[in-house]
Design a protein that fits this description.
Elements (H helix, E strand, L loop, with lengths): L4 H9 L5 H18 L4 H29 L20 H26 L1 H16 L13 H22 L4 H24 L1 H7 L4 H5 L1 H17 L1 H8 L4 H7 L2 H13 L5 H25 L1
Helix pairs in contact: 2-3, 2-6, 2-7, 2-14, 3-4, 3-5, 3-6, 4-5, 5-6, 6-7, 7-10, 7-11, 7-14, 10-13, 11-12, 12-14, 13-14
Length: 296
């Protein structure tokens, strides 16, 4: 059933995935608060808006880019893409993608004024990566580097950058927390690529799942889900915190194991759309619990 124009735009921005850009900012600000006792709400709010706009721009570029490259075919197992379905014209989706990135750039001007050249570097790199994910001659999403891209930009850069905006410094604890959040975010990409492995291979996409195969991808997903939990004692040590920082986020171990078991046993098909949404939710709840454990 064709959605309304407004509904099509809502589908195009992929709202279920937007928590992936919010989660690392929560943790970055929490680490800064725990180490300085201060919270600057203006850069925090502007950084949140910029991060959401960058991800929306990335999602829209992905929608139109995959359509133009012919990888969104009728036998695709994932949710319908608005450009491929003909619900929105490609030119309109591309303009919206550039508009989202332009707005993010404008917010970035304030962040650069506040944070200086490190924020300039992070911001420009993030905008370039948003375009390069499915744009340009060597789109990242068509290579085995998609998961690494997510760890870098939705983990290290997002947590480290939000920490820097609060403190104008960086710490090993913020970088470790960034790696932990980035691994969880990469799990979302792994589910997507595992689901689409067969169609991606036919379309010539060389994602990590296509390169290593289904069995090895199951181990990659396991590492992405479990390492953020196993690294909790290291983060507690880096922050000089006690057992509470470990125990509260570790409550997610049972649902993480159930999700991993479901990932391993489910046949390739639309069920992985639910697994993808569950993975994104798990990452967001992990960020909430980790941030709470850090500040309390």
């Amino acid at each position: 059933m064709q959605p309304s124009p407004l509904g099509a735009w809502w589908l195009a921005i992929r709202p279920k995935t937007l928590t992936v850009s919010v989660a690392p900012l929560l943790v970055g600000h929490a680490v800064a608060w725990a180490q300085t006792g201060k919270f600057l709400w203006q850069p925090a709010l502007v950084a949140l808006l910029a991060a959401l706009l960058i991800q929306i721009g990335t999602n829209l570029h992905n929608d139109v880019g995959d359509f133009e490259r012919g990888s969104d075919t009728p036998d695709r197992l994932g949710p319908p893409r608005v450009t491929a379905m003909g619900w929105l014209p490609p030119a309109a989706v591309r303009r919206a993608a550039w508009l989202a990135l332009a707005l993010a750039f404008n917010f970035g001007i304030y962040l650069a004024y506040h944070g200086g050249w490190p924020i300039v570097v992070i911001g420009l790199a993030s905008l370039l990566a948003a375009w390069a994910y499915t744009g340009g001659p060597w789109p990242i999403a068509y290579t085995p580097l998609g998961e690494l891209f997510v760890v870098l930009f939705f983990g290290l850069a997002a947590v480290g950058g939000s920490y820097y905006l609060q403190t104008l410094s960086i710490s090993p604890a913020a970088l470790l927390a960034g790696a932990m959040l980035g691994l969880f975010a990469a799990a979302v990409i792994t589910v997507n690529n595992y689901r689409d492995l067969a169609t991606d291979a036919r379309a010539g996409r060389r994602t990590l799942a296509v390169v290593v195969g289904r069995q090895a991808t199951q181990w990659v997903y396991a590492a992405e889900l479990l390492l953020p939990l196993l690294l909790l004692p290291c983060l507690a040590l880096a922050m000089g915190r006690g057992l509470w920082l470990v125990v509260l986020p570790l409550l997610l171990l049972p649902p993480a194991l159930r999700l991993l078991q479901r990932f391993r046993r489910a046949p390739a098909g639309p069920v992985f759309n639910q697994i993808l949404a569950s993975t994104a939710r798990l990452q967001f709840v992990y960020a909430l619990l980790l941030a709470l454990a850090i500040v309390v």
